[in-house]
Amino acid sequence: MFTSLFCTSFATIDQYFISNRSIRIRQLSHLSFARIIILVSVFLWCSINIPVLFLYNVYPRNNGTSTVCTVYSPAWSFYYTYFQSLALLCLVPLSIFIIFGILTRRNLHSVRQFHRSISRQMTKMILLQATAMGLSLFIATVQIIYQSVTMNIQKDALRNAQDNIFNTVANLLTYVTYFGDFYIYLYSSKSLRQALKRIIFNHETTQSITNTMFSTQNQNGTITNRNKVQPIEKNNS
């Protein structure tokens, strides 16, 4: 979850690198550099979750008839709730996305070659992505904090049912961050919608077939290239 989320944020930083007028900054947008960042990111997120392997355990429930796999460490609960969930899952990626999205729009606005429609399209994408990401991550973070704060509170059946509904809705909304970008790009970009239509209805395939050089076999069994360029014969006179 952290890797996917921060790769989206890294893509926003890469857009800022590409659109910058400084050659030195544009050179940071390199495939090998991106691979290193992703590998370091994966290693980092795996490392910070190593304590989960040792802290989780199976404990009996209060009713004594079933068990639950959880953590009863106050230090880990505070770390997971306010550092991992609030900071790393919500505030940091959302801040990166908004800050570098605004900087990218400023870069595009400073270049005169870019049409105004591109700047408006970029602004629309940034606003929609920030709204979708902020909504999904904020609700998920609130749910995690609420669950941690009310962990030791005695709840009746109605309260447990309400908490389960809230938990389910919050978990489902987290998926908006992962699949929402495609629909946002599709809604914001007319050229992307047209390209998608051509791909779906095989317009590009039909066009490529008609434009490519094709060959047919003549009566003698030899191959004749119909689109072959013929040399111009010089007039000796």
From TrEMBL:
<dbReference type="GO" id="GO:0004930">
    <property type="term" value="F:G protein-coupled receptor activity"/>
</dbReference>
<keyword id="KW-0807">Transducer</keyword>
<feature type="transmembrane region" description="Helical">
    <location>
        <begin position="165"/>
        <end position="188"/>
    </location>
</feature>
<feature type="transmembrane region" description="Helical">
    <location>
        <begin position="79"/>
        <end position="104"/>
    </location>
</feature>
<dbReference type="InterPro" id="IPR017452">
    <property type="entry name" value="GPCR_Rhodpsn_7TM"/>
</dbReference>
<keyword id="KW-0675">Receptor</keyword>
<feature type="domain" description="G-protein coupled receptors family 1 profile">
    <location>
        <begin position="1"/>
        <end position="185"/>
    </location>
</feature>
<feature type="transmembrane region" description="Helical">
    <location>
        <begin position="33"/>
        <end position="59"/>
    </location>
</feature>
<feature type="transmembrane region" description="Helical">
    <location>
        <begin position="125"/>
        <end position="145"/>
    </location>
</feature>
<protein>
    <recommendedName>
        <fullName>G-protein coupled receptors family 1 profile domain-containing protein</fullName>
    </recommendedName>
</protein>
<dbReference type="GO" id="GO:0005886">
    <property type="term" value="C:plasma membrane"/>
</dbReference>
<keyword id="KW-1003">Cell membrane</keyword>
<keyword id="KW-0472">Membrane</keyword>
<keyword id="KW-1133">Transmembrane helix</keyword>
<dbReference type="GO" id="GO:0007218">
    <property type="term" value="P:neuropeptide signaling pathway"/>
</dbReference>
<dbReference type="GO" id="GO:0043005">
    <property type="term" value="C:neuron projection"/>
</dbReference>
<keyword id="KW-0812">Transmembrane</keyword>
<keyword id="KW-0297">G-protein coupled receptor</keyword>
<dbReference type="GO" id="GO:0042923">
    <property type="term" value="F:neuropeptide binding"/>
</dbReference>
